[in-house]
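Reviewers of the previous submission asked for a worked example of the structure-prediction workflow described in the proposal, so we include one complete record here. The input consisted solely of the amino acid sequence. No template or homolog information was supplied to the procedure at any stage.
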Amino acid sequence: MDIGLGDGNGTSLTADLLIWHAQAEDVTGQTNQNPSEYVSVGVLPAPYYGAGVDGVKYFDYLNGNTVSSGVVTENKGAKITSSASGANASTTDATGPLGYFAEGARTNVALQSEDFSTSWNKQVGSQVVTTNTAVSPSGQTTADKFIPGTSSGNQELQQGIVWTNTPYTWSIYAKPAGYNFVYLQTYAGTADRYSWFNVSTGVVGANSGITNTSIVPIGNGWYRCSITFIPVASTMYFAIGASPTDGTRIFVGDGTSGAYIWGAQLEAATFASSYIPTTTGSASRNADVLIYPAANNAGAGSNTTYFEAQMPSTGTEQLGLFGLSNSGGETGNSSEFYSNNRTSATLEIYSGGVFQGSIGNAITAGALTRYAGVFATNDARSFVNGGLSGSDTSVTLSSGIDRIRIGTNRNAGLFLFGTIRNLKIW
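From that input alone, the workflow returned the following structure tokens.
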């Protein structure tokens, strides 16, 4: 990117030029490509956001700037919490964005997650996949339209893989394109399991052999549908289908109606994590590890902390929310919040590698929850949503805390797979 002076005819001029607030933005796929609000880089004064990180700013409003005749008029857009901003319950609440989104490592083994014309096998020869025909949840025109065939058969697209004997979650983003239902399926021989989803109303439909299903609104008419299951054979297939009615797999399509689909994901877990795009091979996401030094941010021993966090509503894996520790984690000194399931969270303390005590907290699965904890010798207390959950007056708390782990536990072995915000330590 160059800045200079010229006469408009290709001739450079020599003169003094004062510039301020230079900013280059990637607006690929964005509907509003006007300049947005300035974010400072490399200077650290206001506007300055984040602990020790420059060039980061949290916005409460969408970009409302307009450009006319080369002149930018600055203005605020819709508040991010409003429906006009496209906000939904997975990203915001009444006070704004839900905060830092922390996830552990995952791998998507579904191939060609955005191109259903390639590695996906048609089960009816007359089925049609029109690629890149609709705006996807990414904001780009990368969603495909799947049109069931005009001859009778199972109206679905499928892939096959070799499975391990562990829970898997199969998910996809879908939107009506003439038909209101999609279904997700896994099968091997006679082991045939599936679940339908109404992607017009956001309701789970007919089900056969699947005990864990989910449909989540994403915005702009899109839903993320998922099923969780344990494979019954080493080689199985997974499929996505579209249908005009709930529970119907075999029918004759009209040749034009179907569903928009995007973001196929199959992962070894009991719930769906954020989308990982693939092409000709599987793809992995590294864990989100956010660690700050305790020096000047927290005490070396006793601390009181507050934060707001939202965990996934489904799944059975243990999750980490927040931890204060030294390099030893559980084998050293630590104070943390973690969750064994979706309806409880635990405050736990170790000193010198010795377990000191824990306090359980009842929570609502999937709900944004306010947590507070007191960590001190002979004074451990845990609070949820303003109420005292429990206390322990017999704990020993050693000094030596040197790091703050956010969205994970004391040794970064468990991850939140959700959001955390408004962390305070004193």
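The mean pLDDT is 87. We consider this example representative of the routine output the project will generate in years two and three.
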